[in-house]
User: Fold this.
Amino acid sequence: MNDIILLYIILFILISIQSIAGVGILVIGTPILLVLNYKIVEIMSILLPISIMTSALNILFIKISEKKKFLKVKKKNLILFFFLCIPSVFIGLYLLTIFNEKFRLEYFVVFVIFLTFLLSKNNKVVNMFSKKLNFLFFILVGVVHGITNSGGSLLSLFISNYERKFKARYEITVFYFFLALFQHVMFLIIFKIFVIDEYLFVILLIPLGVILGNIMTKFFNENKYKLLVNFLALLSCIVLLTNQYL
Assistant:
């Protein structure tokens, strides 16, 4: 199969997955493209714009299709996100540059994600984080994302466990849109590389993948949706542990 056709098929599947769960393009797409011998800088240049456009279209799609439901991210959470989560990405990047040669920070992130997975099964812990310790949650998301691009795993795990499916999808999509947007701005400033224009056909795939994903989400009830989110989080752990061998 032609490499570019294979890439488009993979991207279409990832766009559809992210349209269902709210995350997926960066977490799953990065290791897949590494296996296909893409360089990490090129991978980020391809996936970040796609993730941003996918999330933006999904926000619009959800708003239109769920217009009878009151969908709004809490103002307090938005403030915490911008003032705690975004700056924490820098902390993660700093830790990566300082300590990554001494010990693999991926192991730390896997521990955090797996611990979050276990804690998210406890309703008392989820309620405590969502009401009293959500500032710590947003800091963790930023740090983890700065280290490994896996902040979306934490984000989706906790939000999906204290919100119903339609509200969780919307909140995860909104937060992940801003997280990827900020990351892409920093990427462009640092690397000054923009290669997505070499894959312009993928722009046509984004609305198709978004439509397919939003159609498929109707077949995911509350339990199946949470199962998918949990699967993606655990998959990100496996990817982080094996990424050094790719």
